[in-house]
Amino acid sequence: MADSKSVIPLESNPSIFTELSYKLGLSPILQFHDVYSLTDPELLSFLPQPIFGIILLFPLTPNYEAYRKEKDSESAVYENENPNINWFKQTIGNGCGLYALLHLLANISSDLTLSHSQINDLVSKVSNRNVSVEEVSLIVEELEKSIKLDEQFGSKGQTEAPSPEEAVDLHFISFIKGKDNHLYELDGRRNGPIDLGEASAAGRENVIKDQKLIDKIQFYIDNADEKNKHNFALMALGPTLD
User: Fold this and answer.
1) Is 230 a catalytic residue?
2) Is 96 among the residues known to form the active site?
3) Which H/E stretch holds residue 236?
4) What is the top-level taxon of the source organism (predicted)?
5) Catalytic site residue from 33, 96, 103, 182
6) Model-level pTM?
7) Closest Cα partner for 68 from 207, 183, 171?
8) pLDDT tens for residues 76-106?
């Protein structure tokens, strides 16, 4: 499926993702936070708990692309059949930040989003399993038009924004627990949602404490080439800081 358009890639910035989340309908009791370690207890203690979802920014290295193609060749074409998770195929060039955000907002409890919001409208449309992946993609494309991603958010951030047509070698994906208490990796460039297995006891209440999450992110770091070892960033969706 060809990209419908290209947008300015979002910066990995909790303030930008929080602002966009509120526009879409996230409850103001939650916000995004930078994550500086998944294993250091002292650094983790600065994060408000519990964490409902994680967004990872990582480099698209040759090693990763080979891994992605190999794994996707082993999986069947996804037909939007899993009732436990909402997944969106990326059809907007450089739009991975938006897709990563939607993957979290469309899968958290409805108690954490505002009624009559854009995100609840999206969920109601895509939760019907008779809607195809292609139809879901068109719904997301219409949502992007309505929020005017480039105009409202593309040029925000601390670094100079590239043009929509510029190819970038960094990519956002998300991790969140589904309705079946399984941990999912959600990436619009893959063949479908990736079921990482049942969440651990700790992970059911707090995603960041699930060892499967830690192991999968560490796998991506370990397989990056030397020049990209530090081109990773993490954001967590958790309670708002008072």
Assistant:
1) no
2) yes
3) strand 233-239
4) Eukaryota
5) 96
6) 0.94
7) 171
8) 889 999 999 999 999 999 999 999 999 999 9
